[in-house]
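Backbones bend. To wit:
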Amino acid sequence: MIIRNVFMKTLYDKRWFVFGWTLGLMALTALMVTFYPAMHQDGSLEQLTKSMPPAFQGLVGNLDNLSRFSTYLASQLFDIRMQIIAGVMAIILALGISISEEENGQLRSLTALPISRTAIVVQKWLAMVVILSVTVLGTMVGILLFQMMINESIDLGELARLIFMTWILLIALGSITFAAAMASGLRSVASSVGILVLAVSFIVTTFSVGVDWLKDFESFSIFYFFPAVDIVKEGIQLRDVSVLIGISVVSLVVTLIFFRRRDIR
């Protein structure tokens, strides 16, 4: 059976991807939430403070943030682990709906149908957005469920802000990789672009805390526009939202321009 609705076909093809990654992120959430009480055992924070080298403080963040559940989640889950793990998920997803389908011939078959290349790109991109929405919402559900096990809670508004910013961050990362894949048709190019953005952003944002010369390059990191702890304490900044959405829009436009002109393998 030929499914002419590219959007629905993509969602159907990725149903197990969604299921697996949603469970995985919920498991990560469970681990981080249930670990919170251990941070408050007698002397734990003080011992960690004394043993942490300054250059590696970015891996943990400001230790004062560990005393409150909301800032603990922001600094230990959203500001470090979610960025990398969910970022990898976004890259894998973008490659899966683009270059992988070109390599197995599905993309060529799609372009042979009476569907415009613009429609193919837009529907695939929208499917990616929906998939990322489901997985991120799974993280939110996980936090709300597992926090009851430790008799702690995060304000729903604070959690919603973190989830929203995580969502648009992942869309930006996915859009960059999707653009590189659909524009070039080369897995090596698309993978390199996605991994490079993720790795450089992680290194710059994490180690700029203890390495002075890296601070001059912080704004080149996509994670710079997702200051999780500040989002909890001060709210969302319009600049950060604008930059992340702008990256996604520009990436989508680049995809449309180049994909409509190139040959499909």
User: Anything to note?
Assistant: The CA atoms of residues 35 and 150 lie 9 Å apart.
